[in-house]
Amino acid sequence: KEKKSGRNQSAPAVLGPQLFAMLSPAAPGHTLEAPTGMNGVNKQAPSLVQRLNAIKQHFPDVMSADDFIARVEMALAGYGFTGDNCIAMSNLCRDESCLILEDKIEAAFGSCFSTHGLGGVLTCGVIGIKAGLSHSPVVGGKERYVFFSLPHIAIDSDGTIGALARPNRPGASSACGALIAVT
Protein backbone atom coordinates (compact mmCIF):
# COMPACT_ATOMS: atom_id res chain seq x y z
CA LYS A 1 0.00 0.00 0.00
CA GLU A 2 1.33 3.44 -0.80
CA LYS A 3 1.85 5.97 1.93
CA LYS A 4 -0.85 8.58 2.05
CA SER A 5 0.20 12.19 1.94
CA GLY A 6 -2.16 13.28 4.69
CA ARG A 7 -3.39 11.98 7.98
CA ASN A 8 -6.42 10.09 9.34
CA GLN A 9 -10.05 10.84 10.22
CA SER A 10 -12.01 11.16 13.47
CA ALA A 11 -13.56 8.79 15.95
CA PRO A 12 -15.10 9.00 19.37
CA ALA A 13 -12.75 9.00 22.36
CA VAL A 14 -13.97 5.54 23.40
CA LEU A 15 -14.67 2.98 20.72
CA GLY A 16 -17.38 0.48 21.43
CA PRO A 17 -17.74 -3.28 21.12
CA GLN A 18 -18.16 -3.09 17.34
CA LEU A 19 -14.49 -2.14 16.99
CA PHE A 20 -13.34 -5.06 19.11
CA ALA A 21 -15.62 -7.43 17.24
CA MET A 22 -14.07 -6.31 13.96
CA LEU A 23 -10.55 -6.81 15.34
CA SER A 24 -11.31 -10.20 16.82
CA PRO A 25 -9.39 -13.09 15.28
CA ALA A 26 -12.68 -14.98 15.24
CA ALA A 27 -14.02 -12.56 12.62
CA PRO A 28 -15.34 -14.27 9.48
CA GLY A 29 -12.66 -15.21 7.01
CA HIS A 30 -9.78 -14.96 9.50
CA THR A 31 -7.06 -17.44 8.68
CA LEU A 32 -3.33 -17.52 9.01
CA GLU A 33 -2.05 -20.50 7.13
CA ALA A 34 1.27 -21.39 5.63
CA PRO A 35 0.87 -21.13 1.85
CA THR A 36 0.75 -24.37 -0.08
CA GLY A 37 1.63 -25.18 -3.65
CA MET A 38 0.25 -27.78 -5.99
CA ASN A 39 -1.43 -30.77 -4.35
CA GLY A 40 -1.25 -29.09 -0.92
CA VAL A 41 2.55 -29.39 -0.72
CA ASN A 42 4.04 -26.50 1.21
CA LYS A 43 6.52 -24.55 -0.87
CA GLN A 44 7.82 -22.45 2.05
CA ALA A 45 11.07 -23.21 3.82
CA PRO A 46 10.38 -25.77 6.57
CA SER A 47 11.63 -23.33 9.22
CA LEU A 48 8.86 -20.84 8.36
CA VAL A 49 6.21 -23.52 8.78
CA GLN A 50 7.80 -24.65 12.06
CA ARG A 51 7.87 -21.05 13.30
CA LEU A 52 4.20 -20.52 12.42
CA ASN A 53 3.28 -23.75 14.24
CA ALA A 54 5.33 -22.69 17.29
CA ILE A 55 3.63 -19.29 17.36
CA LYS A 56 0.19 -20.89 17.07
CA GLN A 57 0.97 -23.06 20.13
CA HIS A 58 1.30 -19.91 22.25
CA PHE A 59 -1.08 -17.65 20.31
CA PRO A 60 -3.72 -19.79 18.56
CA ASP A 61 -5.59 -16.74 17.23
CA VAL A 62 -2.49 -15.03 15.82
CA MET A 63 -2.89 -12.72 12.86
CA SER A 64 -0.31 -11.15 10.61
CA ALA A 65 0.69 -7.49 10.95
CA ASP A 66 -0.98 -6.82 7.59
CA ASP A 67 -4.22 -8.42 8.78
CA PHE A 68 -4.11 -6.49 12.08
CA ILE A 69 -3.51 -3.12 10.42
CA ALA A 70 -6.19 -3.77 7.78
CA ARG A 71 -8.71 -4.60 10.51
CA VAL A 72 -7.80 -1.50 12.53
CA GLU A 73 -8.03 0.67 9.42
CA MET A 74 -11.43 -0.75 8.43
CA ALA A 75 -12.82 -0.51 11.96
CA LEU A 76 -11.70 3.09 12.41
CA ALA A 77 -12.97 4.08 8.96
CA GLY A 78 -16.42 3.25 10.30
CA TYR A 79 -15.91 6.06 12.82
CA GLY A 80 -14.62 8.46 10.17
CA PHE A 81 -10.86 8.06 10.68
CA THR A 82 -8.76 8.29 7.52
CA GLY A 83 -5.15 8.99 6.68
CA ASP A 84 -6.16 12.55 5.87
CA ASN A 85 -7.73 13.65 9.15
CA CYS A 86 -5.78 12.00 11.98
CA ILE A 87 -2.31 11.00 13.05
CA ALA A 88 -1.10 7.76 14.57
CA MET A 89 0.96 7.86 17.75
CA SER A 90 3.05 4.73 18.03
CA ASN A 91 4.71 3.47 21.15
CA LEU A 92 6.64 0.43 20.03
CA CYS A 93 9.95 -0.90 21.22
CA ARG A 94 12.97 0.86 19.71
CA ASP A 95 14.18 -2.47 18.27
CA GLU A 96 14.71 -2.39 14.51
CA SER A 97 12.49 -5.46 14.17
CA CYS A 98 9.53 -3.19 15.01
CA LEU A 99 10.14 -0.86 12.06
CA ILE A 100 8.09 -3.11 9.80
CA LEU A 101 5.01 -2.56 11.95
CA GLU A 102 5.63 1.19 12.17
CA ASP A 103 5.88 1.33 8.37
CA LYS A 104 2.51 -0.42 8.11
CA ILE A 105 0.96 2.01 10.62
CA GLU A 106 2.27 4.95 8.58
CA ALA A 107 1.02 3.42 5.34
CA ALA A 108 -2.49 3.19 6.81
CA PHE A 109 -2.61 6.47 8.71
CA GLY A 110 -0.43 8.82 6.67
CA SER A 111 2.15 9.59 9.31
CA CYS A 112 3.14 8.55 12.78
CA PHE A 113 4.40 10.41 15.85
CA SER A 114 6.83 8.11 17.65
CA THR A 115 6.94 7.88 21.45
CA HIS A 116 8.97 4.65 21.40
CA GLY A 117 10.31 3.21 24.62
CA LEU A 118 12.10 0.01 25.49
CA GLY A 119 9.77 -2.95 25.69
CA GLY A 120 6.89 -0.87 24.37
CA VAL A 121 6.71 0.96 27.71
CA LEU A 122 5.70 4.60 27.35
CA THR A 123 8.68 6.58 28.63
CA CYS A 124 8.32 9.96 26.90
CA GLY A 125 6.52 11.56 29.85
CA VAL A 126 3.93 14.30 29.86
CA ILE A 127 6.02 16.59 27.66
CA GLY A 128 6.42 13.89 25.01
CA ILE A 129 2.68 13.15 25.00
CA LYS A 130 1.87 16.86 24.79
CA ALA A 131 4.26 17.15 21.84
CA GLY A 132 2.48 14.32 20.05
CA LEU A 133 -0.92 15.80 20.83
CA SER A 134 0.01 18.93 18.90
CA HIS A 135 0.57 17.16 15.56
CA SER A 136 -2.88 16.08 14.42
CA PRO A 137 -4.55 17.90 11.56
CA VAL A 138 -7.57 19.90 12.66
CA VAL A 139 -10.54 18.94 10.50
CA GLY A 140 -13.98 20.30 11.28
CA GLY A 141 -12.60 21.70 14.53
CA LYS A 142 -11.49 18.25 15.74
CA GLU A 143 -8.11 16.65 16.32
CA ARG A 144 -8.00 12.88 15.87
CA TYR A 145 -5.40 10.41 17.09
CA VAL A 146 -4.91 6.67 16.81
CA PHE A 147 -2.72 5.21 19.56
CA PHE A 148 -0.65 2.05 19.19
CA SER A 149 1.27 0.79 22.21
CA LEU A 150 2.73 -2.64 21.62
CA PRO A 151 5.67 -4.67 22.94
CA HIS A 152 7.30 -7.27 20.74
CA ILE A 153 8.35 -10.84 21.26
CA ALA A 154 9.86 -13.54 19.12
CA ILE A 155 9.38 -17.26 18.89
CA ASP A 156 11.89 -19.13 16.74
CA SER A 157 11.23 -22.28 14.73
CA ASP A 158 12.30 -24.43 17.69
CA GLY A 159 9.65 -22.76 19.85
CA THR A 160 12.16 -20.78 21.91
CA ILE A 161 10.40 -17.69 23.24
CA GLY A 162 12.41 -14.50 22.91
CA ALA A 163 14.94 -15.79 20.37
CA LEU A 164 15.45 -13.74 17.23
CA ALA A 165 17.83 -14.29 14.32
CA ARG A 166 19.25 -11.00 13.08
CA PRO A 167 20.76 -10.63 9.60
CA ASN A 168 24.53 -11.14 9.47
CA ARG A 169 24.75 -11.73 13.23
CA PRO A 170 25.78 -15.20 14.44
CA GLY A 171 23.51 -17.04 16.83
CA ALA A 172 20.23 -15.91 18.28
CA SER A 173 19.69 -12.66 20.08
CA SER A 174 16.71 -11.62 22.15
CA ALA A 175 13.74 -9.90 20.57
CA CYS A 176 13.51 -7.45 23.45
CA GLY A 177 16.67 -7.22 25.48
CA ALA A 178 15.00 -4.71 27.82
CA LEU A 179 12.28 -7.17 28.80
CA ILE A 180 14.68 -10.10 28.98
CA ALA A 181 16.97 -8.09 31.29
CA VAL A 182 14.20 -7.59 33.87
CA THR A 183 12.96 -11.18 33.90
Give an overview in words:
- 21% of the residues are buried.
- The chain is globular, with a radius of gyration of 18 Å.
- The longest helix is centred in the N-terminal third of the chain and has 13 residues, at 46-58.
- The strands form three sheets. A three-stranded parallel β-sheet has the order 2-1-5. It has a two-stranded antiparallel ribbon with strand order 3-4. It has a two-stranded antiparallel sheet with strand order 6-7.
- It is of the alpha/beta class and 183 residues long.
- The termini are far apart.
- The chain has helices at 17-23, 46-58, 65-77, 99-109, 125-132, 177-181; strands spanning 87-92, 112-114, 138-139, 142-143, 145-150, 163-165, 172-174.
- The chain has six helices and seven strands; from the N terminus they run H-H-H-E-H-E-H-E-E-E-E-E-H.
pLDDT < 50 runs, ≥5 residues: 1-35
What value does the average pLDDT take? 75
How far from one another are the termini? 38 Å
Secondary-structure element sequence?
HHHEHEHEEEEEH
The best one-word shape is globular
Widest sheet: strand ordering: 2-1-5
The oligomeric state of the chains shown is single chain
Helix percentage range: 25-40%
Q: Give Rg in angstroms.
A: 18 Å
Largest sheet: 3 strands, parallel
Number of strands: 7
